[in-house]
């Protein structure tokens, strides 16, 4: 199912994406039951305000809204350009670096959705610094 404008999807915090949680039964024993927060799906959908808080806490969205309809402009275009460049090189980067690149992009997107350009620019600068190790590539975007 497609996300609507301003909606983000995250792994459910209660069940950690499993869709089930342990609960104490009437017999005092632990039993597995469907997670109430995500209704057994393993993920939850939140608005951009909640998403910004989750991203601040270090969570990475599983999916982000269709942002092309929500905001556009030079900053968004540059953000997408650097993120696409880095995504094309994810096999050449370490897993922690890839996670941080995804975090920076998601955070910047959330900030643009709430018209907070300065924090978005800071994350764009992070992406540009991360791309510096690929500076010799012919498709290196360069600063606009």
Describe the structure.
This protein has 144 residues and is an alpha+beta fold. It has 4 helices and 4 strands; from the N terminus they run E-E-E-E-H-H-H-H. The protein has helices at 48-56, 74-87, 95-113, 117-131, and strands spanning 7-11, 20-24, 30-34, 43-47. The strands form 2 sheets. A two-stranded antiparallel ribbon has the order 1-4. A hairpin with a 5-residue loop joins strand 2 and strand 3 (30-34). The longest helix is centred in the C-terminal third of the chain and has 19 residues, at 95-113. The radius of gyration is 18 Å and the shape is elongated. It starts with 6 loop residues before the first strand and ends in a 13-residue tail after the last helix.
Summarize the structure.
The protein has 144 residues and is α+β, with helices and mostly antiparallel strands. 40% of the residues lie in helices and 14% in strands.
Percent strand equals 5-15%
- Overall average pLDDT: 84
Biggest sheet: strand arrangement: 1-4
The number of helices is 4
The end-to-end distance, rounded to whole angstroms, is: 36 Å
Low-pLDDT stretches are none
Taking the sheet with the most strands, its summary is: 2 strands, antiparallel
Topology overview:
Elements: E1 7-11, E2 20-24, E3 30-34, E4 43-47, H1 48-56, H2 74-87, H3 95-113, H4 117-131
Antiparallel strand pairs: 1-4, 2-3
């Amino acid at each position: 199912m497609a996300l609507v404008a301003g909606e983000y999807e995250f792994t459910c915090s209660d069940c950690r994406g499993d869709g089930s949680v342990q609960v104490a039964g009437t017999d005092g024993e632990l039993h597995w039951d469907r997670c109430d927060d995500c209704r057994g799906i393993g993920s939850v959908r939140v608005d951009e305000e909640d998403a910004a808080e989750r991203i601040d806490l270090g969570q990475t969205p599983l999916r982000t809204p269709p942002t092309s309809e929500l905001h556009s402009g030079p900053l968004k275009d540059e953000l997408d350009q650097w993120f696409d460049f880095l995504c094309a090189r994810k096999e050449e980067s370490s897993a922690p670096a890839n996670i941080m690149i995804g975090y920076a992009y998601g955070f910047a997107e959330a900030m643009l959705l709430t018209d907070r350009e300065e924090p978005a620019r800071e994350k764009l600068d992070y992406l540009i610094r991360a791309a510096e190790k690929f500076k010799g590539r012919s498709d290196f975007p360069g600063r606009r």
